Amino acid sequence: MSTPTAVDLSVTVGGLRLRNPVMPASGTFAEGLDRVMDFNRLGAIVTKTITRELRTGNPLPRVVERPGSLINAIGIPSKGVAHFIEETLPYYAPYNTPLVVSISAPTAEGFAGLAAELSLPGVAAIEANISCPNIEEDGKAFAMRAETTEKVTRQLRDATKLPLWVKLTPNTGDMPEVARAAEAAGADAVVVANTILSMAIDLKTFKPCLGNIMGGLSGPAIKPIILRHVFQCARAIRIPVIGCGGIATSDDAVEYMLAGASAVQVGTATFVQPAAMTTIIEGLAAFCMHRDIARVAELSGGVVIEEADEPDLAWLNPPT
Length: 320
Ligand SMILES: Cc1cc2nc3c(=O)[nH]c(=O)nc-3n(C[C@H](O)[C@H](O)[C@H](O)COP(=O)(O)O)c2cc1C
Fold this sequence. Notes:
globular, alpha/beta, 30% helix
């Protein structure tokens, strides 16, 4: 199937104009995928999260499958910022697709320093993966609390003029509040979301399946949960929401956009079907053609909600 040309697939997301709303989720995409797809077809390229120093990552095993899902505790192995600047950045330079660089650091200053250092030609935006432990506080992820989200986002904002996307964690009680903090501190978009903290136990050994004991759940099983988070966050803030969680088909992407996402990221699906993203782009165009939708951006926030007496309360506490 070739992409119909009558549909305008372009979207504007957090300071960037993208040819379509589909991009990889950080950590699930790498250079070698150029063997199965033309990177110039993607809306954007999002790199694996990089850290300043070399990091080896977590003990093995790092991945376990569960029905409709994957649990990973990779632990952000990183070749460091120097390798990224010398090798990775030049590799992507020939592509005509915005390069979004995902970064992580254990402190707010560390995040800001890395963002400043990576504000280079060829980098289109910074995605701050603030779902990592904040060692200055109590080791909880920055994005678990509004205050720490606001602090790190403000320092990032001061450190770079590039579009700043902040990737949130669903492992918090109140994502809309955290999203509001990111917006107040100057983020251009939020990514909703990283993986859901989870666990699996091996029934032969009675030991946890992962070397790290706990890991992040991803894949189709998490889609309804993250879709709900996207819906709530999109109503709480004015900056764009990029939806990420269990997207495997173009129908999934449409659902996310209807819930309020301006663009989507595809992660685990790429492990199952390496060309999933290009199939989703084609499917989005076909969906719009069939529904006579001229611009894919029109889907964003298009979910039809019947009027509720107390809509805010109804969204937070749905009847059981
Ligand atoms: C193997 C693996 C590695 C990941 N590495 C990163 C990472 O380096 N940085 C990051 O922000 N998210 C990382 N993630 C999370 C994904 O970017 C994404 O937020 C999550 O998997 C949910 O999307 P999905 O259900 O489409 O996979 C990783 C996920 C997986 C499965």
